[in-house]
Amino acid sequence: MQLKEVFTRIEKKAELHSYIEQIPAKYKKIQKAYLAALVKLSYLLYITQSDQKPQIKELLDELSQIPFAENYDYWTWVEHALILQARIAREEGQSAVYDQAMKWIDDALQTGEEDVVKVKHNVQDRFVKGETLNTKTIDAAITQKKPSMECEQRILYIMKLFKIKELGAQLPYTDEKIDAESQQYIERVNEIIKQIGIQKVEPFK
């Protein structure tokens, strides 16, 4: 399914209309930027408005239809959508949805020549150990007293934590550590949203 087709289907969904229309036109002009905005929207709603699960799932159902085309500029965002879809499915005991989302992620990992696949596995092994995590952008936002930036960077960090969780955390990371850290970051995001309003955070600004 082509990106433009997915975007059109999402825009036609009445349940998502009030959110989609608030995404600035600057994102909608470029496919990659629009894809990133929609994925960020799904995480923002999951973190701040847990009562919107049906709408979040509708959005993720559409984003998950985007196939792997060996372009990681796009696939990175689709993978994050699949991770959140898997997380919600796991929480709700929907094993078939969970298995399908994780299969699509694994299929992309296994695609390519042997050397390419080996490199991708090495990258993922480092990722699930938390070796690529850092808080420099969050710390910078705090130092500069930019709550919108802090909130956005915390959400990106949460996305990485969720990905480690679903892919299978490895020491020094554990499920318990990820859960505790995720909850801490989620609480801070909600504190910031309460202070400045959700409209001051991507993808609404």
Main features:
mainly alpha
Blueprint of the fold:
Elements: H1 3-11, H2 14-20, H3 25-28, H4 31-48, H5 53-63, H6 72-92, H7 95-109, H8 114-128, H9 136-143, H10 147-167, H11 175-196
Helix pairs in contact: 1-5, 4-5, 4-6, 5-6, 6-7, 6-10, 9-10, 10-11
Structure commentary:
74% of the residues lie in helices and 0% in strands. It has eleven helices and no strands. It has helices at residues 3-11, 14-20, 25-28, 31-48, 53-63, 72-92, 95-109, 114-128, 136-143, 147-167, 175-196. α1 runs antiparallel to α5 (53-63) and α5 packs across α6. The longest helix is centred in the C-terminal third of the chain and has 22 residues, at 175-196. The protein is globular and about 45 Å long.
Explain briefly what this protein structure is.
With 205 residues, the chain is mainly alpha-helical. It has helices at residues 3-11, 14-20, 25-28, 31-48, 53-63, 72-92, 95-109, 114-128, 136-143, 147-167, 175-196.
